[in-house]
Specification:
The mean pLDDT is about 90. By secondary structure, this protein is an alpha+beta fold.
Length: about 230
């Protein structure tokens, strides 16, 4: 890895400030002053800034139980970002893996590992996501087959991929889909003449929302949870 990139990734310095620090002789590699910003370093190298060792930050993988009123954006807009719920350093380096609407609750994954998140969100992976859906109207059993076959949504040219629908009560279902189209769940039920009152995501792929997490609470993923999402 380039020296300037390594410093920017593992300190509060921007890439441009990291370059300045290197060029001005404030950085050493294995006790040798290095002024070449493109100098290649190895994992075993000891990089120091003002004689203070810079340790490589491990990637972070987080599960959050998103409450109402927050948006899955890295910046505040009309509503606050879910990142405000995380009391950790370097939140600006994190991004949200798959988004939820401001009025949707439940499982959100957050990380700074771009390759890991891409494996989850890539349309080619067809990563399954499951939701508890509260509806305005009674659900008829015949829509199970309709959802299984796929629905053609308004202003779309391709039907949705097969979805699994399990009736929980007269107006509540468990829905599992493989895509992430714009407002997909709400539009699917609108296509069969129903309206979503509340939407709560309970799982993404093999990761299920921890029942111990209250609204707005979070925890780091376990090693097993992280590796289980290394989709091929």
């Amino acid at each position: 890895m380039r020296l300037d990139k390594y410093i920017a990734q593992n300190t509060n310095l921007t890439r441009s400030l990291a370059k300045q620090a290197i060029s001005s002789g404030q950085v050493s590699v294995n006790l040798e002053c290095i002024k070449n910003t493109a100098f290649k370093i190895n994992p075993a190298d000891k990089v120091c800034y003002f004689d203070k060792l810079i340790s490589a930050l491990d990637h972070r993988y987080i599960m959050l139980n998103k409450p109402l009123g927050y948006i899955c954006s890295t910046q505040d807009e009309v509503h606050p970002s879910v990142l405000n719920l995380l009391d950790i350093d370097k939140r600006d380096r994190l991004h949200i893996v798959g988004r939820l609407d401001v009025d949707t609750t439940g499982l959100v994954l957050i990380t700074d590992d771009g390759q890991w998140s891409h494996r989850i969100t890539s349309p080619k992976k067809n990563c399954q996501k499951s939701y508890l859906v509260d509806l305005t109207e009674k659900v008829d059993a015949d829509i199970i087959e309709i959802f299984k076959k796929g629905l053609l949504l308004n202003n779309e040219i391709k039907p949705t991929l097969p979805a699994q629908l399990i009736l929980q009560s007269k107006q509540k279902v468990l829905l599992s889909i493989q895509e992430g189209r714009y407002h997909q769940v709400k539009r699917m039920f609108a296509a069969v003449g129903n309206h979503v009152e509340a939407l709560h995501r309970i799982s993404i792929g093999t990761i299920t929302l921890d029942a111990q997490l209250g609204d707005g609470e979070w925890r780091y993923l376990t090693e097993d949870e992280i590796t289980s999402m290394n989709l091929k």
